[in-house]
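job 3f2a | input accepted
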Amino acid sequence: MRSVAKGLINIIRAFSNPNVAGILRLQTQWNSPSVFQNIRPLSMSLWSFGAQSRDLSQPNASWSPEMLRVYDHYIALCEVETIGGEKKRGPWWKQPSYNRTLKYVKGGSYLSKMIQSKARLFTRSVKEHGAAFEYAVFVNKQEKRCVCVFQSGHLLEGPPGYVHGGAIATMIDTVMSSLAGCLSGSVMTANLNISYRSPIPLGSVVLIHSALDRVEGRKTFLTCRVTSTDETKLHTEATALFVSINLGHLFGT
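job 3f2a | predicted structure (253 res):
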C-alpha cells in the first residue's frame, strides 16, 4: 500500500509542477511490477498539460429563473468597477466545479483518465441536467465565508415532494469543505453535526451559507446555514470540524 501511495503522490507532484525530467522519471516507474502496470503510459504530448476540465457549475437549461437570478447576483459581485471605469476582481470568487477532485490540480484532467478513470465525484455523477445536484459555490476569502446556490433535482427526493436529508447533508459537507479547503489547504471532514429545521421542497432553490468559526492548529471549525433565497426561512443548521492533511496521510502512509 505504501508503494502505491508513493507512486500516486509522485504523479500528482509531477503534474502540479510539470518538467521533462520529472515526467521521464515517472515513465520509468511503469516498467517495475506494481498496480500501475494497467495504467496507460504517460504521454509527452504538450496538450495533456493544457487540457481544461469542464466547469459543471455553469448555467444550463435546467436552471430555474430563481436559480439564474441568484447566480447572476453573485457573479456580479465577482467583479467591481473602479473610479476610472475599469473592471477588477471583486471580493467574491466563483469556485469551478469538476466531476473529480483530481481535476483541481495541474494536469488533473489527464490524471483522471489514468487513476480509476470511472470514478466520479458523488455530487457530479449524474449527467442529466437538473436531475440531481445543481449548484455553484462563491467564496469570499477576505470575509472567510462562502455561499452556495443550490437547486435540487427529482432524483433527490426523500419524503414525497421534499429533498432527502442525506442529499442536504451531502451539499452541506460539499460547501463547508470547499471553504475549509480555500482557507486551510487540503482537509478532510472529521465531524459534522446537522439540525434539520424545515424541509426543503424538491426542485426549489436555496442558499447554503458557510463561515469560519475558528482555527486551532490543524483543526478548522465552520458553521453553516441553509436558507431560502431571501434568507427569511431557515431550513437547516450545521457545524463541522475539518482536519488538515497531507497527501501521504490521504493515501495511508
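job 3f2a | DSSP finds seven helices and nine strands in the chain.
job 3f2a | closed
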